[in-house]
Amino acid sequence: MGTRSLKHMFAAVAVSALALAAAHGAASAGEIRVGLVTPLSGPIASQGIPFSKGMAAGQHLIPGVNGHTFKLIQLDDESNPSLSTRNARKLIDEDKVDVLVGTGGVPGAMALASIASESKLPLVSFTPLFLSGEKAAWSVTTAQPASLMIQAVVDTMKANGVKTVGYIGFSDSWGDLAYNTLMDEASKAGIEVVTNERYARSDTSVTGQALKIVAANPDAVLGGTAGTPGALPYIALADRGYQGAIYGTHGIINPDFIRVAGGTAEGLLAPTGPAVVADQLPDSHPSKAVAGEFKAAYQEANGEEAKDAFSAYAFDAWKVIADAASRVDPSIEPGTPAYREALRDAIFQVSDLPVTHGVLTFRPGSPYGADDRAAVMVKLTGDQWVLQK
Amino acid sequence: MSLDIALILSVDGLAAAAIYLLAGLGLVLVFSVTRVIFVPFGDIAVFSALTLAFLEAGRTPPTIALVAILAGLTTAKECWQLIRQRNLSRLPRILLAWGALPLIPCIPAVLAAGRDLPPAVAVAISLGLVLPIVPLLARLVYQPIADASVLVLLIASLVLHFLLSGLGLLFFGPEGFRTQPLLRGGINLAPGLFVSLQVVLMIATALLLALLFFLAFEKTLTGKALRATAINRTGARLVGIRPSMTATLTFGATSLLAGVVGILIAPATTMYYDSGLIIGLKAFVAAIIGGLGSYPLTALGAVAVGLVESFASFWNGAMKDVIVFSLLIPALLVRSHYSSHSDDGAEEEV
Amino acid sequence: MGRARRLPLWIPALAAAMAALPFMAGSFTISLVNEIGMAALVVMGLVLLSGIGGVTSFGHAAFVGIAAYTTAWVNTELGLSPWIGLVLALAMTAGSALVIGALTLRLGGHYLPLSTIAWGLSVPLLFGNMTMLGRHSGISDIDPIALGGFDLMRPEFVFYLVWVLVAVTALFCHNLLNARMGRLIRAVRGGKILLASVGADIFRVRLALFVFSALTAAVAGWLYAHANRFVSPAPFSLHASIDYMFMMVVGGLGQLAGALAGATIVIAMKSALQDVLPLVTQHAAQIQSVVFASLFILLLHHARGGFMALAERFMQAGPAHGKAIEFPVEPLARRAMPERGTLLLSVENAVKRFKGLVAVNDVSFDVKAGEILAVIGPNGAGKSTMFNLLTGALDLSSGHVEFMGRDVTAMGQRQIALMGMARTFQHVKLRPQMNVLENVALGAHARGNCGYLRGGLNLDGDEERQIMAEAALQISRIGLAGQEHELAGNIPLGTQRLIEIGRALAADPVLMILDEPAAGLRKPEKQALAELLLKLRESGVTIMIVEHDMDFIMKLADRLVVMNFGHKLFEGRPEAARADQHVRAAYLGNAA
């Protein structure tokens, strides 16, 4: 191809982009626009892709409320908070979304919360958020607060007579968060945290860190990790003959983790939302029915079985939006500042909403809506997560 | 730190060093023959590891499609060039060399996918599938700019890395895979020092391949042709060595090395679509310690990188990579000290 | 690149259009344009450093990060104003660049780019592991920049600040490139021997350039921190560094305007791909990087010069013109020449060994002020090696050289050049992308003293006029008046040798060392050259010359030194050389 045709190609791309930008701007009346920012590539794509599929399941199940249809517009932030910001602005500005949803990774989600309060539209996240003041007035998350989950872990540890615990986590914001929460909860329970080892998701070996933990010989080890890269420490600990109990966080609950960890994570105890063990829940549990709906919707929307724990959080975000939108005064048109404000108010009035991961009640001042119904402990037995009573 | 721990860390470091050694050899080979700094080496290793994982899981490896697409693109490009030159007599050869030959390994892969395969067969199929990838990519990407400066070639390499990791995500998805160990069990070298056979296999394969590599390069005619091209391209052409042929040969050897790296590393760790870059970069540190030219020094560099990495992960896991990359500083200082006197530093225009 | 032009009319027009943008576009477009501006700041530094200076860096996002984190930290922890943050960010970045540069910039070839990858990877990792810097979660709630009691909170307001800074930086870079230090920057690729021959130290130039480019990145980092009001390690990763490099290549290596074009094209195209691809495929996000990479490879294959090369093909390049040379009130000061006939240079028992080979073996001779001394001998006699020993380009294995009464044996090339020894090269070392005037002006480098700051701020007018007048004078002396604004690369090789003589003359030398100046010249040109050299001798300049054309030499030289196989065969008057048996044997033996 000559440079000439290359020039033509560039021109074509530019022209089509402009045309599209113009097309995007025109919102059709009556549509509630949901803007999703999520990492579909980059280091945390393994969270972002399930989030995207969970949203698709939500849209499949609840395509509209009050005569308005939902329109979902999704952008990839490549696991980079700068791009989360840029994409949020794009969604707000060009796509005129009424509500933002996203993203994987705490820094990116926090960046979205800033944009949400600055642009005065609600954000429903599925990642832990730490907000105060004006920012807290616009954002909620369907994730359980880390303290709730880690507390469940520490309670189990205490019940099992654990006195010392070793920590190994990702060297990223999730690893930091899990460690800090563990330090808080453990000191309350009188358990001593004896190591703080870190590794990168892409590392090929954690032998050194595992040796250090084995040398410290704690009663139990907690991994502050997520997904398949979270399996590495358990494999290394097993290789080094560690005999103590092993614990994990809710980030690792997915079948790919079991596949990669092989037998080495047998007996692993971890907190999770009820969605993961929905079939083992008593019928009275509020999440049981919703989890069933989710599984069916996921299957139909994505043509595959829901196996991970992330997609359910995104589905819950959809439920929250749908519930809130159904309570917005029908006379307010979507796409207006009044609608966004009303939607925000409705989100903060969400009360006892059963979702896949427990029951959500949002109140102004805090982004979290989960209570202890959202945390259960599960044990890895064979290749199944078994609910612990 | 007790002696036990030091020994275990050393074994772990040597296992990593085996990987860096093979990767480093590939990088040095490509650089010396073609002046290409082949950043995407690790991505190719990832392709081979994930292909094997897919075969083991009874799924059809998407690598087949990749090879077919690349072969199609390359053939189309070559044919187009011939048509423009009105040199149709060479058309059948081109079709055979770029269109048909790379597709041969796809046939057993298509037939075998979904069946329960013996490990050796799965490994052979994976290696076969990866083998044509680098030569095809090189023909598509590097050959049209073979005369460009090292910098332009380096930029092309980085772009190629992004291209391949993008394809990796598209084809293999974001989740990690770990393959079955080729050898199970292990030996007790000392009390408390259990070495798995897989690690022994890694180190032994690396040593054996490195030795073969060395012999092939020093003793065979092809090896000498490669070396001649490395030393003087114009001179090599004058004595009848075709640089494009040696380049294809080099890239083929690199492909195979990357394939072996992927097969060896996949049972020892979880491989992701984007695991390649960091493996490639660490192999670079080894290759740079060897001055991007010396095979024995590269081996030494690989051992240094592997051991430093292993011990650093014990002392400070989070800063491990910073420590490994800072190994470059003394290596580069020594190197610049020895090269500064004769080197004028005048550069080619881009 | 390079030719000083008047400010074209389109610049004010563009500025006006930019000023109106916030009133027409939405806040997303504005923040996208802001992002382009910040990237352009980084890429401008990179263009100077990598595109022009040839120092490749795959780690510049780390500098953006160092500045962003510095200002974020002092703002949130110490409560200092963003403006103090700017000063500290610049200082911190410059300090880091000095350390990194001192460690790596001596490296040649491909080692340097690879080592930049290493620190480009390490620095963001450090950010993520420092508790002080908020580890991986970063630092949030950074204050917006306040300007006259007014917070620049919204992108529309930051917009003006960003683009004023882009414009100021672009102007500074443009001025700098056309100033005394800029000529040096553009000559860096000529290698250290060329720079030392005009009295400059290549390492210092590269280091200064490196720090300068880090500073433009720091400005971008400061803007980023206060515009986003949040920093975390991801935006400063190796990936981001490589993106900056891509922008530079897309824009066009070595073109200042290319920085802006590259940043715009890359960022706008990624944004456009994000819109277009979902229409075609479900896996848009994953395909995006594949499509981008493929387009980039096509660019490398078909338009390696980037956007600016394409643009130049479109815009009919007008006839080369530069600023008219104004004659200054006062010409550059001249050196006092040593008195004719006094001892200027003496070589005692000079030996140079290259591993086993002895290229110069125990050679001694003297040069007196005001004479023309020719060194002749068959090919491989060691003449050029001898010249390299005298000028300090090579170290002696043993022996002594004294120049103007000082022992210069151990001195570097640069100090010797500064003492008044100017040279030309057997393999011409001109900068093909600079015009004749600039190439010659490079020779007068050591006679000026305006640095980077005065150059960039355009406060060097008087000195520039002096240097340009001097260069123009020397160009007319070598008979090339009227060709001042031709690119040196477009000039025939023989004439290029004359330009090298002009460059040497511009240094106001005491001793000129000419390595085969007449090679490639036609007869009348040789005649003119001989006349020029004789005139120079009249004015007190001493000349050493290596030449193969015997007629030329015999008419010109006062004395000859004849070398063969590294030995001195003969020293004396040309007539005596003709009669000397050894000399005849050497030449006849060589011919046979």
Task: Describe what you observe in this structure.
The complex is a heterotrimer of chains A (389), B (350) and C (592). With 389 residues, chain A is an alpha/beta fold. Chain A has helices at 3-25, 45-61, 81-93, 106-119, 133-136, 146-159, 173-189, 207-216, 231-239, 255-261, 286-302, 310-326, 337-347; strands at residues 31-38, 64-65, 68-76, 99-102, 123-125, 139-141, 164-170, 192-199, 220-224, 245-248, 269-272, 353-355, 358-360, 376-381, 384-387. Chain A folds into two domains: 28-144 and 293-372, 3-Layer(aba) Sandwich (Rossmann fold), CATH 3.40.50.2300; 146-272, Response regulator (Rossmann fold, 3-Layer(aba) Sandwich), CATH 3.40.50. Chain A is 44% helix and 19% strand. A six-stranded mixed sheet of chain A has the order 2-3-1-4-5-6, with helices on both faces. The N and C termini of chain A lie far apart (67 Å). By secondary structure, chain B is mostly helical. Chain B has one domain (3-176, 190-339): Orthogonal Bundle (ABC transporter involved in vitamin B12 uptake, BtuC). Chain B has a two-stranded antiparallel ribbon. In chain B, a hairpin with a 2-residue loop joins strand 1 and strand 2. Chain C is of the alpha/beta class. In chain C, helix 2 runs parallel beside helix 6, helix 2 (27-52) crosses helix 11 (256-280) and helix 11 crosses helix 12 (284-302). Helices cover 56% and strands 12% of the residues of chain C. Chains in contact: A-B, A-C, B-C. At the B-C interface, helix 8, helix 13, helix 15 and helix 16 of B face helix 5, helix 8, helix 10 and helix 12 of C.
